[in-house]
Amino acid sequence: MSKKILVHSASNEEAIAQWKATAERLEKEWKEIEAQCAQFEAHIRNELQQEIKEIHRLTLLYKEQKKAKKLKRLEQKKRGKNYKEPQGIQPLSEKNEKPLPTENPDLKKLYKETIRHVHPDTQAQDEESQEAAHALTLELMKLYKASDFQRMLQFHEYILSGKGLPAQIRTEVSTYTGVGYWQQKIKDLEEAIAAEKQRFSYGILTSYPDPMTFIPELREQLKARIQVLKKRTRT
Known about the structure:
The chain has nine helices and no strands. The chain is mainly α. It has a domain at 1-60 and 196-235. The longest helix is centred in the first third of the chain and has 45 residues, at 3-47. The chain is flat. The chain starts with a helix and ends with a helix.
């Protein structure tokens, strides 16, 4: 093996190690934010469970009362001389009716059969097997969304035959298990972290000097909501 190939291989492994380390750091951050938010929200629900239950009860009562009023008005209309039963939605004429898009049942069958054989949950627990299975799963999902029947058939034939993937497909999939795989994982984790930071609880945790002082504020808001619902339901 030439020195150039060895240097390229070492450089690629170093890059993968760096991307992997970044992904592990982001995953740790995501899990920490998720745990903090879940714990804080559970504490809020525990502290305000009476108010939450009362709002739930009054909301259901309000919906039931609205439904009863609607039925009462309908009965009054039925007693009128000019009342006519609604005919429902009329079908479109054949001239204007557009056929609904249909899903290729053969493609769906191939996808389901193939995905069962490559899904990460069916693989050994070593990291290399998990990464390869995840990469194949991503590729199959992409082909299914693109309705690429021929490529799906190739995957199905080789995977279920036990022959392994042909060189062309194996080369494409290997990009997911290398730097490309970790770059995609980092992107997914960054999006997950951004979503967690949109939670109201995260906003309270990061903006209040003492997040627990938010609970009395929220209790007052819930009490005001209860009063509004009591007026609407006349309770």
